[in-house]
Amino acid sequence: MLTQKIAARFSLSEDEVNSFFEEEKATRQTERAEKREEKLTQLVTDGKITEDQKALITAKREADRTEMEEKRGDRKENREEMKNMTEEERAAERESRKTEREAKQAEMESWLEENGIDKELLPALGMGSGKKGGSMGQGGFGQIK
Question: What is the secondary structure of 21-51 as a DSSP string?
C-alpha cells in the first residue's frame, strides 16, 4: 500500500500519512464545492438557470455523491468476486454494469427534462460532457447521450 511505503520512506507512522491524505482530500473537496457553487451562481446571474434549479442541482449532486460513497465499498468486493469468475461470467457482469450505467443516464436525462435544465450546461456544472461515452466521474451526474 502507498501509505505504508511513504510512512517507511519518511519515518512516519501510517496514521500520520493517512491523516495527511484525509486532510488533503477534504481540502480538495471543499475547493471543488466552492468552484461548483460559483459556477451555479454565475449561471443564475447569466439567466441560464433559476435559483430553484440551482437548489435542485445542488441537492441532486449531493444525493448522487452519497450514493457513490455507499457503492464505493461494494466496488472493492465486486473486484474480488470478478477475479473468481469465468470469462463468461465476467462478460455478463460487465454487460450488467453497462445496462446499469445506461439506465442511470436515462434517469438523468429525464431528471434534466423534468426540471427544465438544458443538458448542454452539464460541462459548465462539472456534471459530464453532455456526450456519449463518459463515466459517472467525481460525484458528477455522468454523461448524457
Answer: HHHHHHHHHHHHHHHHHHHHHHHHHTTSS-H
pLDDT in tens, 40-79: 999 999 999 999 999 999 999 889 888 888 887 777 777 7
Largest CA distance in the chain: 55
Task: Tell me the residue ranges of DSSP E strands in 24-125.
Answer: none
Element (H, E) at 122: helix 122-125
- What gap in Å lies between CA 111 and CA 89, rounded to an integer? 33
d(CA 67, CA 126): 17
Q: Residue 61: which of 97, 93, 108 has the closest Cα?
A: 108
Q: Where are the domains of the chain?
A: 71-139
Please indicate, yes or no, whether the overall pTM of this predicted structure exceeds 0.85: no
Residue 108 near residue 95, CB atoms below 8 Å? no
